[in-house]
Amino acid sequence: MSRFPKFLSPKQLLKLLKAEKNTNSALTLFDSATQHPTYTCHTPDVFQHILPRLTESKLVSQVPRILTLIQTQRCKCSEDVALSALKVYSDNKMPDKALEIFQQMNEIFGCNPGIRSCNSLLNAFVMSNQYDRAESFFAYFETRFETNLETYNVMMKILCKRNKFDKAKEFLDWMWSKGLKPDVISYGTLINSYVKSGDFVNALEVFDEMPDRGVSPDVVCYNTLIDGLFKLGNLTKAMEIWDRLCGDYYVFPTVVTYNVMLNGLCKCGEFDESFKIWQRMLMNEHRPDSFTFCTLIHGLCKSGNVDGAYRVYTGMIKSGYVPNVVTSNAMLTGFCKAGRIGVCRGLWDSMGKANCRNIVSHNILMKGLFEKSMVDEAISIWELFPEDGCVPDSCTYGIVIHGLCENGYLSKAIRVLKEAEDGGGNLDIFAYSSLVKGLSGEGRLDEAISIFEQTRKCGCKPNSIMYNELINGFIKISKLLDAMRLFEEMKANGCPPTTATYNTLINGLCRAEKIVDASAILKEMLSNGREPDLVTYSSLIDGVCKIKKIDMALQLFVRMIKEFKPDVNLYNILIHGLCSVGRIEEALNIHLAMKSCHCPPNLVTHNTIMDGLYKARDCKKASEIWSQIFEEGLKPDIISYNIVINGLCLSNQLDAAVRLLDQALVQGLLPTVITWSILVKAVLNSASPLMICTFSRNIKDVYVHPCDAKGYALSQRLEADYFQRA
């Protein structure tokens, strides 16, 4: 009461109500006014203001008492007040309540229904999807009232909601023929329905018809089309409609338009373009809302532009918006992916102070820490769960177990799994498959199989990742029969083999030189609709090269390059195969072609071709390859030196071989047993006892560590040979 002036009139009350933005407070003012000593009674203007504010679902229950008050006060109102009440019920999908008001309009408001009231009730039926009642009501009132464009727009809505688009289009043409002049609402209704059904051909046709008919599209029409086209993934057409909007002198983008553009561009991966739209929005002085900020932050983080995202994030806070946990998590994810763990921790702390952290936040940070091998820090976040009132979910356990496995903490990962199982934790297949993968990779197959069996007992169905890892584990230890048994079990248990499964088996069989069996697996792979990839071809070509079927390897290579671009590994396999059977010229041709195919040779390529040339006694070309290694900025390894040393020894250039060994030592490369074996053989084949003695001392000078017993053994062999010759 203290807020009211001494003398309160309905006009003053209306002014106070309009100034009060909170609907609950406005309703309190409305009720309090009736108790004011100088206030008479509410006027139609006051009722017309308060009724539309009760549209919120929590406040719609207040409408009956307001209507009772109107009736009790015998306040004669216009149809506008009745329309306000009808709209409240229509928006809340309460057509029966709307019908009651329509039937009692004279008793409540002191006025009779007009065409606008009919249209409002008709729309209430449509909003509630009660199309039969709507059509029955239309049949009732069209003979009693003079229908107008609004009436037919509602009828258009009925046809569209019933997916009768052809009839809706015919209805639009009929309206023109009757001189009703459809408006932007008529067209907008049809365009929106076409877009929702995915029929953009007709949607754009109707949109293009509007200017020809003298109807200007509004921004809602543009927004509907742009949003629909983005959802369809048609970026080009969406941008075309955007350009048309920008060139329309009568329509301007709204905040909703910019939100649609930003959301669509981000989902299409056009992050740079989305940032341009954002800058245009600010330049045109449109105030971004929370959706704008969230959309752009998500998009920029996804694109890797975390600094740009953080600027938007801080701008959001400065604009008075409080980032919700979803937006903050997006920012946290962005920094984690960028490896900015220090910034992550700062954001994490600020989220905690704002009480804006959930289980997803914990999962994101733990994942980021594990990926940076910060295991202790990740576990410290894991230990915060009870304190923060978070219950680990399946994603949490998956992240922790996977993170521990990836960082080599397999035993701890097993303990976490057991604790989760014993405590009734929510575990999914990712946790189990991570352990199977980790254990298989470390050669702990028995434990991996145990976890695999445990998966079934816990109600999880083993997936292709688990089968693939175990199959690969068996192949690594040459247990092909066990690998094939598991492969058959995989199929029998309804887990379709993946391309990786077939590749693993083909690779294992080819390494074991079981080309016939590998071909059978390839045939099955093709029959099951799995297309061979580069890995498949590489394994097969390597396999046939091993059994010296080089022509078959070349045929496979020719077939493969029709579909895939060979990588350096495949070229190396083929070059090695050709060199192994003395087809050096063909190997050189492939070596030469690699650069023109945008696949430059690597050190392995050069080593392979150089070895082949030396074995063919083509020292000149081999020397050219050696020079090429340095020209291309590659650094020879001990294998490179071994190949050249061996080549020089085979050409009786022992002095040059020894000088090259000195060069390797200067480069910090330690000779291997192979190095010494090559040189020992060459020295023993020489006729110089002095060379034998000198070289023996050189070996002792290099192999000074007690562990280098093989070096001492070689020097002793040389000395024995020296004394024998002496």
Automatic annotation (TrEMBL):
**Matches recorded under PANTHER family:** MITOCHONDRIAL GROUP I INTRON SPLICING FACTOR CCM1, PENTACOTRIPEPTIDE-REPEAT REGION OF PRORP DOMAIN-CONTAINING PROTEIN
Superkingdom to which the source organism belongs:
Eukaryota
List, alphabetically, the Gene3D superfamilies matched: Tetratricopeptide repeat domain
Record flagged with keyword Signal: no
UniProt keyword terms in alphabetical order = Repeat
* Pfam families, per database record: PPR (PF01535), PPR_1 (PF12854), PPR_2 (PF13041)
**InterPro entries linked to this entry:** PPR_P_subfamily, PPR_rpt, TPR-like_helical_dom_sf
* Name of the protein in its database record: Pentacotripeptide-repeat region of PRORP domain-containing protein
The PPR repeat ranges on this chain? 148-182, 183-217, 218-248, 254-288, 289-323, 358-392, 393-427, 428-462, 463-497, 498-532, 533-563, 567-601, 602-636, 637-671
UniProt lists the family membership as follows:
Belongs to the PPR family. P subfamily.
